[in-house]
Design brief:
By secondary structure, the protein is α/β, with parallel strands linked by helices. The chain is about 45% helix and about 20% strand. It has an 8-stranded mixed beta sheet, sandwiched between helices. The structure holds nicotinamide-adenine-dinucleotide (NAD).
Length: about 250
């Protein structure tokens, strides 16, 4: 699908990978709804898009609230007269499942998995209404394809996003809606930096370095522009660049 002239919603657009996605889409001529709970970060993204000559509007949205999410996705059509691309990207880490303070691991499930399912459901129905097809891209993680010893709940949510996305390949033929996912390894964003310098160095060692948010955004652009991709799981890694995870067939 050509991106020029299209309208997109990017959740978690106020920081890191979501900000890079919003910028990559806007510089290719799409109009963006930057959706985030963080108003300051979201407004900064809008400012960056405008400085780059693009069009973006901030919308405060908590993806765990269905009504909020539905209104936000619908607002693309109100603002820009259409809806073509939805990036369900908002996500968190931060669990310590077996610690004295296990963290709110259920919140990790709510944001990283439940809200991605809800965002996809709402996006598909909105795009179906318009009848011109579209693309949904879910931000999973390499942690959805490999074990993450320290972050088992995070890994479970991302594995859920991977197989949820794979299971929706049929929507391409049925409605012209392609649902894909991107699986990056560690990426230099506030989410990763919050885990501390030592952990970041250990992660870099493990996977051969750290991606930049723009590397992941480049994967998003491929997934949108390549009309053959539906239910596709793109890996983005420092060592291997961008490639597609193969189906495991029984
Ligand atoms: N950074 C990495 O190493 C890495 C690797 C693989 C996948 N990911 C995934 O990429 C996505 C983006 O992460 P990031 O690294 O850019 O993190 P980040 O912390 O920089 O950005 C996440 C954004 O999501 C927003 N957000 C959090 N909860 C929200 C909610 N309930 N409603 C709306 N917005 C909410 C935050 O305010 C923030 O702006 C996440 O899904 C994450 O799991 C990150």
């Amino acid at each position: 699908m050509e991106i020029e002239g299209k309208a997109a919603v990017v959740s978690g657009g106020g920081s890191g990978i979501g900000r890079a996605m919003a910028l990559a889409l806007a510089t290719r001529g799409a109009s963006i709804i930057v959706a985030d709970i963080d108003e300051q970060g979201g407004q900064q993204t809008v400012q960056l898009v405008k400085e780059a000559g693009g069009t973006a509007v901030f919308r405060r949205c908590d993806v765990t609230h269905t009504e909020d999410l539905a209104n936000t996705i619908a607002s693309a059509a109100e603002q820009f007269g259409r809806l073509d691309i939805v990036c369900n990207n908002a996500g968190i880490g931060g669990e310590d499942l077996f610690g004295d303070e296990p963290g709110d691991w259920k919140k990790v499930v709510d944001i990283n998995l439940t809200a991605v399912i809800d965002g996809t459901r709402i996006a598909v129905r909105e795009i179906q209404k318009r009848g011109h097809g579209g693309v949904v891209v879910n931000t999973a993680s390499m942690g959805g394809l490999l074990p993450m010893p320290g972050s088992p709940v995070y890994a479970a949510t991302k594995a859920g996003v991977v197989n949820f996305t794979r299971s929706l390949a049929y929507l391409a033929e049925q409605d012209g809606i392609r649902v894909n996912a991107v699986c990056p390894t560690f990426t230099d964003t506030p989410l990763v930096r919050r885990s501390g310098d030592d952990r970041v160095e250990a992660m870099k060692e493990q996977v051969g370095g750290i991606l930049q948010p723009e590397d992941v955004a480049a994967g998003l652009i491929d997934l949108i522009e390549d009309d053959s991709r539906a239910g596709a799981i793109m890996r983005v890694t420092v060592r291997g660049g961008r490639d597609y995870a193969r189906e495991i067939r029984p």
